[in-house]
Amino acid sequence: MLVLSRKKNESIVVNDDIIITVVEIRGDKVRLGIVAPKDVPVHRQEVFEAIQSTQTTRTQEPPAAATHPTE
Length: 71
Hints:
There is one protein chain. By secondary structure, the chain is α+β, with helices and mostly antiparallel strands. It has one domain. It is built from one helix and three strands. It has one helix at residues 45-60; strands at 11-14, 18-26, 29-35. Strands 1-2-3 form a three-stranded antiparallel sheet, with no helix packed on it.
């Protein structure tokens, strides 16, 4: 893990097209602004984990019973 120190209004650039800026620091909370291309999903970790869990559950469900037309 790379650990960087930033002050309010300072930024970090990731992969030339993602900019993370410290917007506000209040007590033990830090607000970040993120600019990223529209095709790059950006989620809080708990949301990301919920999405992953849902996708894993879907792939593990047995397929629906196939129906065969009567001849």
